[in-house]
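User: Some background: our group keeps a shared notebook of sequences we're curious about, and every so often someone picks one and asks for a predicted structure to add to the entry. Today it's my turn. The entry only has the sequence so far, pasted here. Could you supply the structure so I can complete it?
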Amino acid sequence: MFEQTLKDERNETLSMLERLSQERNIEKLEKITRTMLRENINDPAALYYMAKSYIYQNKEEIAATLLQKVAAFKPNSPHIYELLASAFDGMYMYDEAIACYEKAIELEEQKPKESRKPDEMRAMSALYGSIASSYVGITKPYTAIEYCNKGLEYEPKSKICRANKGIANMAIGNWAEGWQGYDLLLGEPGTKRKIIKYGGADSMERWDGSDIDCLVTYAEQGIGDSIMFASCLEDTQKRVKKIVIDCDKKLEGLFKRSFPDCDVYGTRHDPAPEWPSKYGVDASIAMGSLPGLFRLSKESFPKKPYLKADPERRIMYRALMNSWGKRPKIGISWTGGNIYGGFRRLELDRLKQLVEAFPNVDWVSLQYKKTPTYGLPIHVVSAAESQDYEDTAALVEELDLIISVPQAVVHLAGALGKKCWCLVPDQVRWIYGIEGEKHSWYESVRLYRNWDSEIEQVIRDLSLRYPT
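Assistant: Of course. Here's the predicted structure to add to the notebook entry:
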């Protein structure tokens, strides 16, 4: 009887932990798991749910450490490997994530498909969708599509499979099919892309592309993505009488200058902006959803400049750079994005190799955060770190060339029509495709591929342009 009571209490605790996990109640999860670990520091269930709480807090490195310990106790549990894969995925450690997902799939597939309950079918589909996400992350879209198709055999309506299949299709230029999947995770829990409704009860929750009087389009992603998706505003203006843009404060001035017929507010991060009450809003739409209406084929990308820099600030930065002498002025950015795995990061030795190969050039940092220049002859101008992107745009316009890893300044240069050479890592977002030197969105951006040899390619081409 006593043993049965202990077993019942254990089952009740585990059920509570699962419920709290589904609710993402981090505070209670941590409180209960800490109590359990005081009683048994190696309690696998406590470690597992504590790891979940860390994943919810974007502390994947701690979660992965805990889960590796759990996997040693429970080597045949697919759920542990799946969660460990999710932690690796969150750290952009895609190879490690794929290995864990494959282990989870191997363990799960030991159970016959025909004997699975509906919720088990959905879970299996989600597992295939998750490994597909990692294959998207390492720029293997065709493999990602194969896994998505396997997942859809278990659950034809699976959002994660359809979404990752969409992103994989965009990477290979299948735009119409790609956008259908891309938007499926908009507003889903745990994603950064939110759905916001700005109008009253009678307004559309999301614009469907029809002719209306007033539309709010809002930035739901980073600075670079917002700039890229803003290329669709000219198309949008043909169907909407008044467009209101809700963007990052950093872009407010630049967007006002570039889209004078639109009303622009830099209130993306404000919880309760006052301006919506001034408008009779008919519909709203995330800026990242606009291409799904206007960029359905390769031919639908106009690739023409659409941003305008402040002429007075341009004069100021031109005067500054003229004071350095008559050498060519090249903007350079060598890091961007996440801190994991070295993605979008030019190693110091190769940065040095490039910069020192051209003493006849004035190098200008376009790093958007304070970054050491390691004693290299690189000018640091406050415009690149400004919280007003009008400064950065004016500086970029006065440079002779931009060389950058993938980050916001590549989108800025492309949107301004400024010549830019982009150093594409071997693992890169769908935006840059998987082959070729042409950028789908910008005519002025040239893509360099094959990470190990890109610097040599750039030095060779730059030598033809500016011989020493």
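Suggested note for the entry: DSSP finds 19 helices and ten strands in the chain. Residues 209 and 236 are 8 Å apart (CA to CA).
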